[in-house]
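Private note to self, pasted from the team thread so I don't lose it. Backbone tokens:
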């Protein structure tokens, strides 16, 4: 709140003598001239770094220094544009996929253990996992995620779970974080895949559904082949097991996703 000083306590107005006013403009002009000179001197003494050493630029080194600065500015601009495009793509994708008749949306409740409600600002990759529980279904895993709100025994979830029959269940909105990919939770979408045995190999139905979902998501987010990764690429964990131990099988899935 602005405070008002009572009139009887206010300081009397200050008056500038005519002589002082007449001398003000020359002093301002002189100060501006000094600033211009100082700016020119500063620009002529720009710091440049060569091999980790600082040196003042000379007329002979101005050109490479300016080229380096231009390159850095172009790289920074490219990064900013990429970030803006990623965010725009993220905002353009609907949080849930009810519009697709081949996806069942069955969101788990917001809770601190499996759906924190934290926003995903951009999506830079899709991470594929295997459940590690042979013979279980997509709905069983969705129910496990939901139950963590009560048990609190772990912090884990996934955006999607694909069953052995090819059924796809969405558990977490695409604009929210799921707890599946460690330090990449904040910029990735996660897909858990069920499997019939300890080898971790997906059924044909699971692979077909995975390829279909990956095609949709990579198109929606504008991702290329580098944007489809395994949990293995994030932490070194053998997940999805079969597709880490058999990299050719993993490459075959990616080839199907991006085939013309």
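Design output:
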């Amino acid at each position: 709140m602005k405070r008002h000083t009572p009139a009887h306590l206010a300081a009397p107005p200050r008056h500038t003598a005519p002589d002082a006013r007449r001398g003000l403009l020359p002093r301002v002009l002189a100060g501006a001239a000094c600033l211009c000179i100082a700016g020119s001197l500063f620009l002529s003494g720009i710091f440049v770094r060569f091999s980790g050493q600082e040196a003042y630029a000379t007329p002979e080194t101005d050109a490479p220094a300016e080229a380096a600065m231009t390159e850095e500015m172009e790289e920074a601009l490219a990064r900013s544009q990429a970030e803006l495009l990623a965010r725009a793509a993220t905002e353009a994708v609907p949080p849930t996929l009810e519009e697709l008749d081949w996806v069942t949306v069955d969101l788990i409740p917001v809770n601190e253990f499996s759906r924190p409600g934290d926003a995903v600002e951009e999506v830079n990759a899709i991470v594929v996992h295997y459940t590690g529980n042979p013979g279980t279904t997509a709905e069983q895993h969705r129910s496990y995620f939901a139950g963590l709100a009560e048990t609190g025994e772990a912090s884990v979830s996934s955006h999607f779970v694909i069953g052995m029959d090819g059924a796809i269940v969405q558990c977490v909105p695409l604009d929210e974080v799921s707890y599946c990919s460690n330090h990449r939770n904040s910029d990735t979408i996660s897909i858990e895949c069920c499997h019939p045995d300890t080898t971790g190999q997906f059924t044909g139905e699971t692979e077909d559904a995975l390829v279909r979902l990956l095609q949709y998501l990579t198109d929606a987010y504008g991702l290329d082949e580098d944007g489809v990764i395994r949990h293995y690429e994030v932490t070194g964990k053998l997940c999805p097991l079969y597709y880490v131990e058999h990299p050719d099988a993993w490459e075959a899935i990616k080839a199907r996703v991006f085939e013309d």
